[in-house]
Amino acid sequence: MAKIRRNDEVVVTAGKDKGKRGKVMRVLDSGRVIVSGVNMIKRHTKANPQMGTAGGIQEKEASLDISNIALVNPATGKADRVGYKILEDNTKVRVFRSNGEVVGG
Question: Are 64 and 30 in contact (CB under 8 A)?
Fold first, then answer.
């Protein structure tokens, strides 16, 4: 079970985009994540008329290391650490370390 999953609301804790918030779009196997609207890069592409793609400069999100982001606790609105808890019915859930609430989503 991963501590950070797709569609989680996260905040960047280190780097040039420190403090920015966004949703996790993808979690890569290499321990990196892509967050919407964060770590934008410019990609210069050549036009390909056969595929119908236009040339120019495209902006897209680059990946961030998973250690440089943290989940946002909706109760406090701040970054929070995540732990695990096993409920009475033997299901493993993610919980916020500060208040012990179950992570929604």
Answer: no
Whether the full predicted model's pTM is greater than 0.70, yes or no, is yes
Q: What are the pLDDT digits (tens) for 51-75?
A: 988 899 999 999 999 999 999 999 9
| Residues 83, 97 contacting (CB under 8 angstroms) | yes
Domain span at 70: 9-44+56-77
Collapsing DSSP to helix, strand or coil, 32 comes out as strand
Tally of domains in the chain: 1
Quote the CA–CA distance of 100 and 86 in Å, as a whole number. 12
CATH classification of the domain holding 64: 2.30.30.30
Q: How far apart are CA 98 and CA 79, in angstroms?
A: 10
